[in-house]
Amino acid sequence: MLKYVLLGGLNYMPLTGYQLKQWVDTATHHFWYAQTSQVYRTLDALEKDGLLTSQIEPQETRPDRRLYHITQAGRDDLTAWLAELMTDITPTKDALLVRLFFSAQLDKDTVLTQLRLQRALHQRQLELYRGEIRDMIAGSAQENPHLARDAMMWDITRRNGELAEEAYVRWLDETIQRILTDF
Questions:
Q1: Residues 6+ apart with CB under 8 A from 112
Q2: Using one digit for the tens of pLDDT, what is the confidence trace for 19-76?
Q3: Strand runs labelled E in the chain
Q4: How distant is the alpha carbon of residue 35 from its chain centre?
Q5: How far apart (Å, rounded) are the C-alpha atoms in residues 59 and 57?
Q6: Using one digit for the tens of pLDDT, what is the confidence trace for 132-156?
Q7: Residue 13 — φ and ψ, nearest 5°?
Q8: d(Cα 182, Cα 6) in Å, to the nearest integer?
């Protein structure tokens, strides 16, 4: 999947590996993330596969940087992948659910502390979706009218994150109440 996240980013503009990592951390982090080492390994593989090219740009006061450009083959691969129908549900991983699944031997206060901490974190993420992230997308759309359709799609993914966080916070509230009364 990281392959397509990177190709998608490069489809907007040429970027360095560092810039791509920053872009992933801001643009797609709420639904896809990657470690720096994964980004560079994937960029190397994509270049070997002819889906992107790179060029070294000399810099006077800093080390040279490598700028990546998507190729037509990369655009074609990205477009073909985007058009593929998804016929299954992607399983998710949730560390809190793993911990809760095995937490019956813990005391009530320890479980409640964990749940309350997670509730605060998810509430903060929900507020980011409702405010800063929504405003960033709207600002990008206003500054770049040619990206209006892109901005709509970005906002659609933001809304998914917002609704998911709303549901997670509701579930945490319900779980906290259940632990308080039944644990």
A1: 176, 179, 180
A2: 999 999 988 988 888 999 999 999 999 999 999 999 999 988 988 899 999 999 999 9
A3: 15-16, 52-57, 65-70
A4: 12
A5: 6
A6: 999 999 999 999 999 999 999 999 9
A7: -170, 155
A8: 47
